[in-house]
Amino acid sequence: MYPKLSKLKAKYIRQLALKKYRLEKTAFILEGKKSIHLLLTSDYEIKFIVGTVSFFKANPDFFIGYEKPIEIFEVSNVELSQLGSFTNNQDILAVVSMPKQNQPIIYSTGITLALDNIRDPGNLGTIIRIADWYGISTLLCSQSTVALYNPKVLQASMGSFMKVNIHYVDLSNYLAESKLPIIGAMLGGENVHNFSFPDRGILVIGNESSGIQDEIKKNLTHSVSIPGYSSAESLNAAMATAIVCDNWKRVDYNHKKDSGC
Amino acid sequence: MYPKLSKLKAKYIRQLALKKYRLEKTAFILEGKKSIHLLLTSDYEIKFIVGTVSFFKANPDFFIGYEKPIEIFEVSNVELSQLGSFTNNQDILAVVSMPKQNQPIIYSTGITLALDNIRDPGNLGTIIRIADWYGISTLLCSQSTVALYNPKVLQASMGSFMKVNIHYVDLSNYLAESKLPIIGAMLGGENVHNFSFPDRGILVIGNESSGIQDEIKKNLTHSVSIPGYSSAESLNAAMATAIVCDNWKRVDYNHKKDSGC
After folding, report:
1. How far is the C-alpha of A195 from the C-alpha of B194, rounded, in Å?
2. Can you list the positions of beta strands (E) in chain B?
3. Each residue's pLDDT tens digit in chain B (261 positions)?
4. A261 to chain B, minimum CA–CA distance in Å?
């Protein structure tokens, strides 16, 4: 049995649906059992947690092993569905402190991913999940890219946002100063199936409709395209990210294969 | 200047948001300029079209080259946003006859795609777009897969649903009777980077949470996995489809490469 959530705290949670309030309170909401399970083992500072009576009954061991003191409140299923962004969340949500973005950017070994003006929250979340899958530790986002703590971004990332270092930067400046190969995914580039990917470099993914901006394009050292086999105009930005990363990572296998020839 | 939309027709359009009415009226709604542009060059039978005054003013040539007689109605921006599923659609929508699904299924040359219980409309739409990109002409869906004419499926497919033959079938029966290699994308399969894809075969993609059902699994002749480079649990079903298709299609390039060794 945990204490009931106060009306004041409920109001505070509902406000965090808006970016304006998230920035003002430097806090965001994370929803769902799986994501919060990951949150408990992360470095994020949890302000408090709200769960349904039925969730706590079904998951009595949920907080076992979590050592920091934590405020937990109980609500009904209906109340929880009115608090968060996902009305089908009948389980749990956490209010989390937004970390300060003042750590220095360290390019990943291997691929560093850079997003130029990705606008769709689902796409950003999915791209974060892809970055995690491919062991990419650093993701650079242009300032115009959709906000990380948008609930739809967090949901689509399936917890992966906690495992990738995500920085919002003046992307054009950053790329101009980088000494690494900078590879853009765009129409008219070299066939991604034949391209010799470097051991280390930055992969730039452009906006869903307009692709990579001219200002960013001038910093590219290479460009790659995914061969299509129809009259379809384009692949979704997240798809393109996944396919280029997969081709980049298979380099290891090709190296071995070539040396065996 | 086109006639105003009647209240009766407006009600009819709003009803088509529900699957029950789509099946009863054997009609569905398609929204957005790009999709309707493709619709006009397709074999689909258009019942009527509704657009905003501002859209018709900005696109006076939109119907040029379309030869069949067509009923067109005019509404305000606010009215259009209340008719369809996408309140940001300020342009145009079409009411389209649902084609009868009685044509025989012809397996694609190359890859035929089979979906086992894909539930998320965005995933199905994205997978249709991937199929189109990779020139896959036949997509088989289990009966439990989300309905094709769901507005979110159509939107995510970006018009590609008109270029791929999509059949809802008893997937287990179909696979049992097929003589083609049947390859499942699943954990624990052969590394997709090393796998020798056949010239022709069926690729099975499973449900977002639970993967391929046991009943379907027993029909697989092979299974493949996408190597990950982190502790991330899984890739989204649409991502997995894109990556496996990309690996399958690059076979051509590898063949050439091997023969040059």
Report:
1. 18
2. 27-31, 46-52, 72-75, 92-97, 111-115, 138-142, 165-169, 182-191, 201-205, 222-225
3. 899 999 999 999 999 999 999 999 999 999 999 999 999 999 999 999 999 999 999 999 999 888 888 999 999 999 999 998 887 778 999 999 999 876 677 777 899 999 999 999 999 999 999 999 999 999 999 999 999 999 999 999 999 999 999 999 999 999 999 999 999 999 999 999 999 999 999 999 999 989 999 999 999 999 999 999 887 778 899 999 999 999 999 865 444 444 443
4. 6
- Euclidean distance between CA atoms B173 and B71, whole angstroms: 42
Residues of A within 8 A of B122 (CB-CB) are 122
Nearest beta carbon to residue A229 from set B135, B226, B229: B135
**3-state helix/strand/coil string of A46-99:** EEEEEEEHHHHHHCCCCCCCCCCCCCEEEECHHHHHHHCCCCCCCCEEEEEECC
Contacts B194 to A, Cβ<8 Å: 253
Distance CA A43, CA A220 (A): 35
Q: What ipTM goes with this model?
A: 0.87
Q: Do A223 and A244 meet the contact criterion of CB atoms below 8 Å apart?
A: no
Q: Are B81 and B87 in contact (CB under 8 A)?
A: yes
Polymer length in residues for chain B:
261
pTM: 0.90
Closest residue of chain B to A161, computed from CA coordinates: B232
Residues whose CB is less than 8 angstroms from the CB of residue A191 and which lie 6 or more positions away in sequence, other chains included: A224, A225, A227, B253
